[in-house]
Each structure stands twice: as structure tokens, then as C-alpha cells.
TrEMBL record:
<keyword id="KW-0378">Hydrolase</keyword>
<dbReference type="Pfam" id="PF00232">
    <property type="entry name" value="Glyco_hydro_1"/>
</dbReference>
<dbReference type="InterPro" id="IPR018120">
    <property type="entry name" value="Glyco_hydro_1_AS"/>
</dbReference>
<dbReference type="InterPro" id="IPR001360">
    <property type="entry name" value="Glyco_hydro_1"/>
</dbReference>
<dbReference type="InterPro" id="IPR033132">
    <property type="entry name" value="GH_1_N_CS"/>
</dbReference>
<dbReference type="GO" id="GO:0008422">
    <property type="term" value="F:beta-glucosidase activity"/>
</dbReference>
<dbReference type="GO" id="GO:0005829">
    <property type="term" value="C:cytosol"/>
</dbReference>
<dbReference type="InterPro" id="IPR017853">
    <property type="entry name" value="GH"/>
</dbReference>
<feature type="active site" description="Nucleophile">
    <location>
        <position position="364"/>
    </location>
</feature>
<dbReference type="GO" id="GO:0016052">
    <property type="term" value="P:carbohydrate catabolic process"/>
</dbReference>
<keyword id="KW-0326">Glycosidase</keyword>
<comment type="similarity">
    <text>Belongs to the glycosyl hydrolase 1 family.</text>
</comment>
<protein>
    <recommendedName>
        <fullName>Amygdalase</fullName>
    </recommendedName>
</protein>
Length: 471
């Protein structure tokens, strides 16, 4: 059977503002939570931005975006996923009026995309809550953030309604379970955060997300607005029913987020969890009606799968994209210990589509690896990243299998289409891109861009609409 991708399939790549833009204090931008997290998700938080934070410069996309968009166009991108830095638009997050310089930057960025026929896919909030909202209000624990986010979203939809068709409300919204500061701007240390406050914060995000869908549909009727979840398919370690039930209960914690976005109500299994853990979600009278504004599509990241066991407390956890569970003995791992499981993307796509019957958008998938810049026989600087080509090829073959299964898929944006600073480790040596950026973890480098071998491979994949993939 030939691999078939639908006509109009949106091929492209993805970045996040806080990992690539830099210019952390230019043109009126305020500080975000990322500006005080120099060591990534596991490291300490600083009071002010420090020189060892690679994200303060990133890859200087803020000043070099025209050069980079041109390279994306050379690959044939149909879509480019990026985020808007909330603190560029509202520096503290709670102002009444937006920062015009920040708005203009994204006007210029989206115009540059359209110049090459590239459709922007925009994440409204991607791991970069304004630091003031985190410290002053304790992030999403405080219901006031709903109003601040609503003003921010309304500003974006009003300004960009004719330039952006595809929107995501929050990036990997379920990651708040593991990383409440990075994902939810919650300043309370994770070990001191109660389940009550955590799930109240999640409720506030749900209401804000649904308000964004409502506002977006009113102001930009042609817009498509999706949620974005971290997907991590979880397999029972054995056929033991204890392992199967443990797997079901673990997956419920992640399905919960897409369930509320796609169905507009809290599922029964979470109501049971709240009862058994003495969690009482405070809801305003209007919240239930707001939540009924459900998303148009489900988007997700996919990097790894994992296993679960009824005896997981006695078993070692695997590494993962924020969430690690029991290691799978049948899978190889990346240099960072992430399990490599191409079939997992087909599995999770079927699970999502069977559950929601809404279109899917694969908005993150890729391999973080240590790349070596060389000079090839033609005298060009490049990276011979066959390992990345193999990884992406095998995953895209499984996306095609899911499409053959009947899953409706809008598009695919590989993560870190140009090298950027890793969210998890705040390193640049963990590279994902088709484009090598000459910057290193010690801050050295020219910031020059070089096409990797995978750049030309992906260009062929796009131009053939997936027909050059190898089974």
C-alpha cells in the first residue's frame, strides 16, 4: 500500500518564542517565567535573569526571523508553528493596554510567513507566563488570571484575525501536573503545592481556554482553535489486570485535559478522583456554560511512550518529556533516555480520534541529539544527521498508517525545525532542527545558520507529499 497524505496536508515545523526569540528585554518586553529558569525545568529559579540563561538570547530569532522564514520556505513549509510571548504584549500581564511594539513584531513575522505562502499556527501561551503574574498572583492558582488571559487573547484575535487561521490556547496544558511553575506560572514550590490548588489552577486554565475559543469564534469566524496536550501513550507492563487498571488510571490523568476541551464537561473518573482526594473545585455559576465552547481540533506533542504497572513504585521510572513512568524493555532510547517508539504515534492518534471524532494536528515530534558540524566534500558546512532522518521517517510512516486507519489529520509540524534552546534542559547541545545554529552552551558561536542533511530530506518529503518516505 502506498503512503497517502491528503491534498492540502500542512507540512511544517514548530518553535516556541521563549526558546528561540531572545531579545528578552527589548522593545518593551517584560520578564517571563522562562527568563528566571536558566537550567530548565529541573533547575532553580533566580530572582532576576542571569547571564547563564541561554534563552535570553536564544538563537536571536527576534532579529533573524526573515532569514529563518526564508529557509523554511526553501524546505517548502506550508505551516509554521510559533508562539506569542505574552510578556511582549502585556509586559506584566495585568496591564489594561498592550505594548504596541510587541504587537508590531508579530505583525511583521506573520507578514513574512504569508510572503512565502506559509500559514502561521500560533500558540497563545507556551510556557512563558509573565513573571509578575507568577510572583504577584501565584499564577493560575488565582482566578484573576482568567481575566488577564481573556484580555490578552481578545487583543490577539482582534489584531491578527486576518493573518492567523490556526490557534492553540495553551501548550501541553497537562504538563502542569509535573511542572506547575513552567506550565502554570505557579510560584508555590512544587513540593508545597496542594492538590486542591493544583486542580483549581487547572480549572482556571480550562475556563480561560474555553473563553479564548468563544472569543476567537466571535472575532475571527474562520479561525480554527485547538487545544494542545502532551501525549504519552502508556502500555501495561504485563497482561496482569493490576497493570491494565494502573495504566487506565494513569492515562485518565492525561485524557482528562483533552476530555474537557473536546466535550466541555468534567468526566466521571475525575469527579471520583476529586472525591477520593478531598478536592473541591470552586466554580462560578457561568463556568459550566463557558466550558461548552469546545475546540475545533486536538493538537498534541509526541516524543515517547511509556509503561505502567500496578507495582510501579517498586520499578524505576523512565525518562520522558516531563513525565516518566516505567521503562519499556522492548524499546531503544535517545541520548537523553527517551524511548523511541514510532508505532506509538499511530496508537495515540487512533485513541484520540476514536475518543473525540475531531481532526488532529501533530504539532510536535522530533529527536533531540548531539549534532556535529562538519565540512562535506562540496566544501559546505552541514550535519550528517541520518539518525534524525530515520527517526522522523519512521514516525511519519506511522502518521500515514493512522491516516489509512481513517484518522483525520490536518498537518504535521516537526519540533525545533531550527535548533533552539531545550525547554527541559535549557541546553543548545540538545538539537532538533533541520537547520544548525552555531551557538553553544558556553554562549560562544556566530549564530550562523547551516542546512543539515535532514533539511534536504524534509524538502523532498514535503514536495512529494510524503511519497518519498521509506517503509
Amino acid at each position: 500500500m502506498n503512503l497517502q497524505f491528503p491534498d492540502g496536508f500542512l507540512w511544517g515545523g514548530a518553535v516556541a518564542a521563549n526558546q528561540c526569540e531572545g531579545a528578552y528585554n527589548e522593545d518593551g518586553k517584560g520578564w517571563s517565567t522562562q527568563d528566571v529558569a536558566p537550567e530548565g525545568i529541573k533547575g532553580p529559579i533566580t530572582e532576576v535573569p542571569t547571564d547563564n540563561n541561554m534563552k535570553l538570547i536564544g538563537i536571536d530569532f527576534y532579529h533573524r526571523y526573515k532569514e529563518d522564514i526564508k529557509l523554511f520556505a526553501e524546505m517548502g513549509f506550508k505551516v509554521f508553528r510559533t508562539s506569542i510571548a505574552w510578556s511582549r504584549i502585556f509586559p506584566n500581564g495585568d496591564e489594561l493596554e498592550p505594548n504596541e511594539q510587541g504587537l508590531q513584531f508579530y505583525d511583521d513575522l506573520f507578514d513574512e510567513c504569508h510572503k512565502y505562502g506559509i500559514e502561521p499556527l500560533v500558540t497563545i501561551s507556551h510556557y512563558e507566563t509573565p513573571l509578575h503574574l507568577s510572583k504577584q498572583y501565584n499564577g493560575w492558582v488565582n482566578r484573576k488570571l482568567i481575566g488577564f488571559y481573556e484580555r490578552y487573547a481578545r487583543t490577539l484575535f482582534t489584531r491578527y484575525k486576518d493573518k492567523v487561521k490556526y490557534w492553540l490556547t495553551f501548550n501541553e496544558i497537562n504538563s502542569i501536573l509535573e511542572e506547575p511553575f513552567m506550565s502554570g506560572g505557579i510560584y508555590t514550590p512544587k513540593q508545597d503545592l496542594s492538590k486542591q490548588d493544583l486542580y483549581q489552577a487547572i480549572h482556571h486554565e480550562f475556563v480561560a481556554s474555553a473563553l479564548a475559543v468563544k472569543i476567537g469564534h466571535e472575532l475571527a469566524p474562520n479561525a480554527q482553535i485547538g487545544c494542545m496536550v502532551l501525549s504519552m501513550p502508556t502500555y501495561p507492563l504485563t497482561p496482569n489486570p493490576d497493570d491494565v487498571i494502573a495504566t487506565m488510571e494513569y492515562e485518565h490523568k492525561n485524557y482528562f485535559f483533552a476530555d474537557v476541551h473536546a466535550r466541555g464537561i468534567y468526566p466521571g473518573y475525575m469527579k471520583r478522583y476529586f472525591r477520593e482526594n478531598n478536592i473541591n473545585i470552586h466554580m462560578e455559576p457561568e463556568d459550566a456554560e463557558i466550558l461548552r465552547h469546545t475546540v475545533d481540533f486536538i493538537s498534541f506533542s509526541y516524543y515517547v511512550s511509556t509503561c505502567e504497572s500496578g507495582a510501579s513504585s517498586q520499578l524505576g521510572e523512565s525518562e520522558g518529556n516531563l513525565m516518566g513512568r516505567v521503562a519499556n524493555p522492548y524499546l531503544k532510547t535517545s541520548e537523553w533516555g527517551w524511548h523511541i517508539d514510532p508505532q506509538g504515534i499511530r496508537y495515540v492518534m487512533n485513541m484520540f480520534y476514536d475518543r473525540y471524532q475531531k481532526p488532529l494536528f501533530v504539532v510536535e515530534n522530533g529527536l533531540g541529539a548531539i549534532d556535529k558540524l562538519i565540512t562535506n566534500d562540496q566544501g559546505e558546512k552541514t550535519v550528517e544527521d541520518d539518525y534524525r532522518i530515520d527517526y522522523l521517517n519512521d514516525h511519519l510512516v506511522q502518521v500515514a498508517e493512522a491516516i489509512a486507519d481513517g484518522v483525520e489529520v490536518i498537518g504535521y509540524t516537526s519540533w525545533g525545525c531550527i535548533d533552539l534552546v531545550s525547554a527541559s534542559t535549557a541546553q543548545l547541545k540538545k538539537r532538533y532542527g533541520f537547520i544548525y545554529v552555531d551557538r553553544h552552551d558556553d554562549g560562544s558561536g556566530t549564530l550562523e545558520r547551516y542546512r543539515k542533511k535532514s533539511f534536504h530530506w524534509y524538502k523532498d518529503i514535503i514536495s512529494s507529499n510524503g511519497q518519498t518516505l521509506q517503509r
